[in-house]
Amino acid sequence: MAYEFISVEREGPVTVFTLNRPEVMNAVHSPMHFEMDEAFNAFNADPEQWVGIITGAGERAFSAGNDLKNQATGGSMAMPASGFAGLAQRFDLNKPLIAAVNGVAMGGGFEIALACDIIVASDNAVFALPEPRVGLAALAGGLHRLPRAIGTKRAMGMILTGRRVSAAEGHELGFVNEVSTPADLMATARRWAGQIAELSPMSIRASKEAVYRGLDEPTLEGAIAGQNRYPAISALFRSEDFVEGPMAFAQKRTPNWKGK
Fold first, then answer.
1. What protein family does this chain belong to (predicted)?
2. Which pLDDT belongs to residue 131?
3. Set 35, 48, 131, 221: catalytic member
4. E strands of the chain, at which residues?
5. Is 111 among the catalytic positions?
6. From the first residue on, what is the mean pLDDT of each consecutive set of 10 residues in the chain (260 residues)?
C-alpha cells in the first residue's frame, strides 16, 4: 500500500523500511506510528519476506524520536498496541531487523534502533536518550533494552546524563555491530541482510525467539529446558527447511530454503 510518512521497498527476501519525514529529521508522530504498525504487520505476515532493514530518509537523521513540536501544539499522541513506531512493544516478530543508522538517533529514534536485532551505523551517527532534558523518560523500551544490551552501569551512564554517544563509542559499548562511512551504510546493512538470508529463515526465527525468550528466564537451566515449547522452534521441527538442510549437506549442494 501507499504510505505518506514512510516508504517500504522489497528487495528479494529483504524489506527496507524508510522513515520519511526528513524535514523534521524523521521525527515520529501519531500517523507515522500507525503507518509503521501496518508495514510491520504486512512484513510479519508475508512468507516471502525474511529480513528487514530500517533507515531514515536524508543524510541528517535516522530519527530524532518523538515529534515534540507536534505534541506541544496539541497533535494526537495516539499509537498502536505495538508501541512507538509500531515496533517498541511488538514482541511477536521473529524475523530479524537491522537498523541502518544514518546521522541522529535520539530518544525514540534510538529506541527504534534498540528494538532491532543488529545496528549498523555511519561514522557520523549520534545516539542518545535525552528525554530527561525535556521532562520525559525513555519509556518506549530504551530504559530496558539499553541495560540488556550493554550492562547496567554503562547504560545508566548514558541514561542519567542524556549524553550523546558517537557510532565509534557505540561500537565500543557494544550496541553497534559495525560502523561504516555514510556512503557505504546501506551496502553494509544489505550485506548483513544478505548473510542472514543465506540461512534457513525457519532456523533464524527459532534462534531469535530462543535468545529473547531465554533472556527472560531466571536461569540458564530454565532457558534450555523451556526452549522446545517456543512456537518458532516447534515450527522449525515441522518445517520443510528442517528436512532440506541436512539433505543438502549430504548431497553437497546449496540448500533451497522454503521458509516453511
1. Belongs to the enoyl-CoA hydratase/isomerase family.
2. 94
3. 131
4. 6-11, 14-19, 51-56, 61-63, 97-101, 104-106, 118-122, 126-128, 165-166, 178-180
5. yes
6. 94 98 96 97 97 96 92 82 97 97 97 98 98 94 97 98 98 98 98 97 97 95 95 96 96 95
**Measuring CA to CA, which residue among 41, 157, 164, 148 is closest to residue 109?**
164
CB 15 within 8 A of CB 48: no
State the pLDDT at residue 36: 98
Rounded CA-CA distance 102/62 in Å is 5
Q: Indicate which residue of 23, 59, 111, 221 is catalytic.
A: 111
Look up the pTM and report it. 0.96
* Cα–Cα dist 101/116, whole Å: 11
Q: How far apart are CA 78 and CA 62, in angstroms?
A: 22
Q: Name the one residue in this structure whose C-alpha cell is 559495525.
A: 178
Q: Active-site residue 35, yes or no? A: no
